[in-house]
Structures are given as structure tokens and as C-alpha cells.
Amino acid sequence: MKIRIKNILIHIILILVCILSLIPFLWLLSTALKGRSENIFAYPPVFIPKDFTLENFKEVLRLVPIVKYVINSFIVAASTVVLNVILSALAAYPLARMEFKGKKIAFFAILATIMVPFQTIMLPIYIITLKLHLIDSYSTLAGYLGLIMPFAVNAFGIFLLRQAFLTIPKEIEESAVIDGCNSFQIFFKLLLPMIKPSVALLAIFTFIGSWGEFLWPSIVLTNEKLFTLPVGINNLSSAFSADYRLVAAGSIVSIIPIIIFFLALQKYFISGSTDGAVKG
Question: Which residues contact 153 (CB under 8 A, 6 or more apart)?
Fold first, then answer.
């Protein structure tokens, strides 16, 4: 009986937290759907629009190249996800499955970089980006590379995939060696498919982080044709003198791809987040 009451209380708390988390999104959606005749700052707040309209979305699409911003964000986010998964897996594999001198030192050195905020290394990265001509003033490709390369791999991804590799029994790898597989075949055809949940989890986190990145693109981008969605929406606010209906509509558009990407990989999310939880 006590366990049942405890489970009920836990579920009630989780439901309340979920509702509190959804309130900002519902308010944003409500604001985007309200017409000009309705006061968006009315008190008490009105979540269901009385003057329901889609004109705010049409106005954003008409006055701002938001579709281009979405395409730019997708190119940057997708490329960052692919590079992050590949490079993190290639770094995590030897740290988990091979023995070599300095292995632990290398792993802890990589892990220590998690404690370094991006803002502290942003200036040297910016200088390197300039010297490598990876800015949009040189070419469109250089502009994209300047946005992608600083986030192509990170310590979190290496740690996550290393922990996932550690959960795979070594006997499976030994059997593959007996069958004549080399290291690359074992990695690509055997081990990597076995950690799909962790790969999907890394892809989700990387996509969300890259999609919502504002600081770095706002520093390196000067060509409006290469603006990502966060930078474009920031300009949207000033372009319309803080017309919150249009800003809300633009924000909703920016959220939709993240929701779609998460829903596509959600079946891997829970299993991926627990992979390697008991391995060191």
C-alpha cells in the first residue's frame, strides 16, 4: 500500500512538473495565434485565443527569409551531428576497447575539457577561424565550415559512447576476430550498430545544441543569407519593433524541427540515456 501511494505521489509530481514545463510553450503558441484585436498581455492570462488567426505566421514568412534561416540551421545542425557521432565514436572506441600507454591520462584529459566553458576559449577559436579563412566573407562553404567545425566533436560525446562500448562483452569482439574480422569491420559492422541508442542520444543532444546555438553564429556571420534561425529570430525582434506576435510565430517555427527530430529518435532516448550507467 505504501509503495502504491509513493508511486501515485511521484506521478502527480511528474505531471505537475510537465505542466509547468509546457506553460511557456503554450503561452508562446497562444501569442502566435492571437490577432491584432486581442491583448496578449491581458491579466489573467488567456491561453485560448478569442481572435484566432494564422496571419502572424504568414507575415513572418512574407517579410523575413525564415525558410532560408531554417535551411541554414538544418545544414549546420545535420553536419554537426554527423561529424560529432563519427569523431566521438572513433575517439571512444580505442579508449574503451584497446590498451595503450597513457590511456587513462588521455581519457581524463578529454573529460576535463567538459569543465571549460566555450566562452573562455571563444577568442582563440575565433582567431583560428579567421586565419583558416572559415568565415562567410570568403565563401558560402567557408561560412558553413566556420559554424560547424568548432562543435564537430566534444568530450561529452566521447564519454557517452565510451561508456556504451564498455557495456558490450569482449567475447563478442573475440568471436568476430576468430571469424576473420579486422578492427574496422568490428567497429563499423559489429560494435557501432550495437550502441545505436547511445548514438541516437548523442545525435539528439548535438542537434538541439547546434540548432539553438546563438552566440557563435552571431559573432562569425556577417552575410544575412547564411544566418541561422536563432540569429534570424533575434533580428526579427528588432525588425518589427518587438512585435511579440511575430516573434512568437518565428519561435514556434524554430521549435518544430527539434520536436520532429526528437520524436523520430525518441524510442532510443531512454535506453540510450541508461547505457553504461553502471560501467566505469
Answer: 83, 84, 87, 88, 91
